[in-house]
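Posting this for the archive.
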Amino acid sequence: MNNPVKKALIAFLVIFPTFGIGSTLYIFLISDKMSADSENRIIYPAKEAVLNLITLGIYGIVWTYRTSCLIDKRNGFTEFSASTLICTLLSCFPLRCISMALLIYRLDNAEMTEYGEN
């Protein structure tokens, strides 16, 4: 399944009916896919998921902002983009399913552009 739109739609359909519990799964999967931040520090997916569970989703807002900024840096932006702001704001409200779908879409598009598939 190489289509970023399909992956984003599946993420939305998994997270929305589970009332955010599925977002912890996607925090783990996206963190695993990112593997390192812009300073080459390793991202530990299990730590990110556990912090989200312990803080009852509040850490997910911080995680969304950090991950969006990493995607922006991978896309060549020096500052955060409007997509980062939108993802973070959606994550603050009970709309994290949309925010996660947007993150997955942006991450897959960044990878496809990086490998020349787009």
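The first helix runs from residue 4 to 15. DSSP finds six helices and no strands in the chain.
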